Amino acid sequence: MVDAANNPAFVQAVPMAGFVGIDNGHAGNVTYAGLVEKLAEIGIDEKEVNVRNKLSRGKFTAAFFLQCLKAIGSSSLHLD
């Protein structure tokens, strides 16, 4: 198993968990099922249970995070 804490390809979900299921002012209220549909629209095949597990574990790849941002229509990312 990959040690996410020491791998830059993994990000912690906690600071950005607001993009699913919570109205963050940009994506609106995106459910897990809605995110799966939006990912499918951009050619990413994910099952709802897999998305739910990735986000509830709090660890997923940076690539998955960027795919989610693209799927929900985000055009910018601000890091504080």
Number of helices: 3
Write down the secondary-structure element order: EHHEH
Major β-sheet profile = 2 strands, antiparallel
Share in β-strands: 5-15%
Structure description:
With 80 residues, this protein is mainly alpha-helical. It has one domain (4-71). The protein is 38% helix and 8% strand. The protein is built from three helices and two strands. It has helices at 32-41, 48-57, 62-71, and strands at residues 10-12, 59-61. Strands 1-2 form a two-stranded antiparallel sheet. α1 (32-41) packs across α2 (48-57) and α1 crosses α3. The radius of gyration is 12 Å and the shape is globular. The N and C termini lie far apart (30 Å).
Q: What's the arrangement of secondary structure elements?
A:
Elements: E1 10-12, H1 32-41, H2 48-57, E2 59-61, H3 62-71
Antiparallel strand pairs: 1-2
List keywords for this structure.
80 residues; mainly alpha; single chain; 38% helix
Short structural summary:
The chain is mainly alpha-helical and 80 residues long. The chain is built from three helices and two strands.
